[in-house]
Amino acid sequence: MSTTQRFVLWIAVLGSFVAFLDGTIVNVALPAISDELGGGITTQQWVVDAYLITLGALILVAGSVSDAYGRVLVLRIGLIGFGVASVAIAAAPTAEFLIIARGVQGAAGAFLVPSSLALITSNFSGRAQGRAIGIWTAMTTSAMIVGPLIGGLLVDLWSWRLAFLINVIPIGVTLVLLARGGFRDTRKPGAAIDWLGAAMCTLGLGGMVYALIEQPNFGWSSPTIWLPLVVGAALFVLFILRQRTVRNPILPLDLFGVRNFWTGNVATTFIYGALALNGLVVVVYLQEGAGLAATLAGLASLPTTILLILFSSRVGALSGKWGPRLFMTVGPITMGVGALLLLTVGEDFSYWWQVFPSMVVMGIGLALTVAPLTSAILGAIGPDRSGIASAVNNAVARVAGLIAIALLATIVGGTLDLDGFHRAAIVTAALMFAGGITSFLGIRNPPADSEAPPG
User: N or C terminus of the chain with fewer C-beta within 10 Å?
Assistant: First the structure.
């Protein structure tokens, strides 16, 4: 890599790191949050989903803004907004205030990932791009895995509130690097953003997710449930229809005419829905069911993190050489096997015999999956549209996690006891297997000898 490329890679990694870190660091803090602010499992679901709703909906807008107005500008806006929201969450006096602040934080986080990844795709090409994406994926995905560990330490030693304040450190470093790098953006003439479409998408997702979360409390026959579900679904359908005719769509439907793009996003739906469900259920059950301290619950996923960091970059390079199909098939299926190993967890709890093997197998599968998945999707789209392509894929991943968490109470049977934990493990495995089968049937390997930017 040249000096500029290294600089770009560090900015991209740090810019995305906080969004991925915060997405999972909160999981281990959920029991402490509900203990202090009240609300039980409903508060826990909304603390996660308020973030994912705005992140999943507005990440599409951010992708369009990134391509139209410049990646560095969008990245700066996201970093500052994320930092301010993190401070507000740390000072939250009530659960309602915290949930609203989490929604604001998700909106700011939507501006981080697409612009960060677009910086890589516009500064790297060919196998170098595959390796750079592998490094970016390893570091940002490791943030998702190491988040529970950091959160656990902060919850046990100080307070859950510090689990959000810690975001300020990488945000500050990234802003300094952006200032010293001297990057300049160019604005596309006549650029416009479909704000009405963004509102329809956000309200549509919000209505449907609200119904899914609150359904166990009110029942499907209650107008409190079916009315927001119907209105939300209608708004989301209207949003999709609008994207077919609006001049500047935030979700360009023509992208889904590319085989690897749409297939990769279907696989993303299964895989990242499973990851979100598994990540939340494991750290919460280890505290509330197995009686582990928050730090130990966070440490449970450390083997997965180590394997991801060690092998993701190498797998990314091999994917650039051999193609992503094999890795995207074997990786999710391996993670599915790892999820089924959690069925060995019993009343007589033993981390080393019941959880550790699952974490190792999950880590191997994750390292095989994440970089090839990202490369396959972005490699199918030209660099001039890398911002929106990245945004769509990340939106799909977040919405998949959003729906999985919204269905948590239904999946576990209302209570995250041992039976509920086992049910969640089976659902996780089924989603992973579906992701691997989808990749095998749909993904096609691009020419292995091309060093030119994807087109």
Answer: C
How confident is the prediction for the chain on average, in pLDDT? 81
Residue 250 phi/psi, 5° resolution? Answer: -85, -15
Query: Do 27 and 119 belong together in one domain?
Result: yes
Could you tell me which residues come within 8 angstroms of residue 80 by beta carbon, excluding any fewer than 6 positions away? 108, 171, 175
Kindly write down the DSSP assignment for every residue of 279-331, as one continuous string. HHHHHHHHHHTS---HHHHHHTTHHHHHHHHHHHHHHHHHHHHH-SHHHHHHH
The parent domain of residue 233 ranges over 194-247
Count how many Cα atoms sit within 13 Å of the Cα of residue 418 in the half-sphere of its side chain. 10
Tell me the pLDDT tens digit for each residue of 282-305. 888 888 888 888 778 777 877 887
Question: Quick one: 92 and 143 in the same domain?
Answer: yes
- 450: in domain: no
Claim: this prediction has a pTM higher than 0.85: no
Query: Half-sphere exposure of residue 416, counting CA atoms within 13 Å on the CB side?
Result: 26
Q: Cα–Cα distance between 379 and 374 in angstroms, integer?
A: 8
Over residues 416-430, the pLDDT tens digits come to: 788 889 999 999 999
Total number of domains constituting the chain: 2
Q: Are residues 173 and 206 in the same domain?
A: no
Contact (CB, 8 A) for 378 and 117: yes
C-alpha 14/C-alpha 16 separation (Å) is 5
